[in-house]
């Protein structure tokens, strides 16, 4: 591949949308996919109809099933594989990535077997320092980015040089704005857990509970994200930013959200396997619910919304019963105040 090429792995909806941003920014994009028919469609028709219907892709994007060719000479490698296959994709890529290539990922989830964040998985498989990996996150539906709708995201890394390199790679003045953030743990945790809360938002909407219920779910969901993130070492301020409340709002309130749609389908009485079969695409919140429940136990953090959704997803609990269990929890404070507790007030 020629100089100024960026490799994007894989060609799902978000990977394709980010490829468009990079192409609009003057980069030659090598978009890797395992599917030869998909690669032919992208190269011949300039479409990726399964993931982004009606979108037309620019000539600067070339799809390939040859990972070595995609990564050869690439100045940056952008990993957008689902969390469940990230390790496998990174392992295949490891021997082909340039030693000085910028490594970015835009996947929101944990590795369910190990509970590791995606930046840790990439560091292990690529043999790179974890602090040099960059995560891109924030409120950003692929369906809107592909149409060049104004979008603002954040890139986080333990290396400010790496974060700023990613910022320069993706940012443009017309529709894609990028901020930097040093809090990788917070950005990755927020991006993963918000998918669980979006499942819950779809559930409450599907049950017809209205805006009051959804607003409460989003707010208390943010509290769960913050509790787990703080226990894992994140900066609490991150959860008030784009990767936190910003991404949470857009994922819980939009028709584009796969997790919201999956939750709504569950509320209609469909089983989880039926929902996933109808979706036909990865619903990250399902895998993340399992991982988050284990992380809550590990870090001794209370996550009642996550716990109830786990029961709905994997123990066949009735969705309305899960909502009732949340409403009937023992009374407590919204914000803990140790000083009041010590004074007896």
Automatic annotation (TrEMBL):
Its main location: cytoplasm. Substrate binds at residues 108, 258-259. It is found in: Cytoplasm. SUPFAM superfamilies: 6-phosphogluconate dehydrogenase C-terminal domain-like, NAD(P)-binding Rossmann-fold domains. The keyword Nucleotide-binding applies. Sn-glycerol 3-phosphate binds at residues 108, 138, 140, 194, 247, 257-259. The active site is at residue 194. One of its GO terms (biological process) is glycerol-3-phosphate catabolic process. Keywords: Cytoplasm, Lipid biosynthesis, Lipid metabolism, NAD, NADP, Nucleotide-binding, Oxidoreductase, Phospholipid biosynthesis, Phospholipid metabolism. This is Glycerol-3-phosphate dehydrogenase [NAD(P)+]. It comes from Cohnella zeiphila.
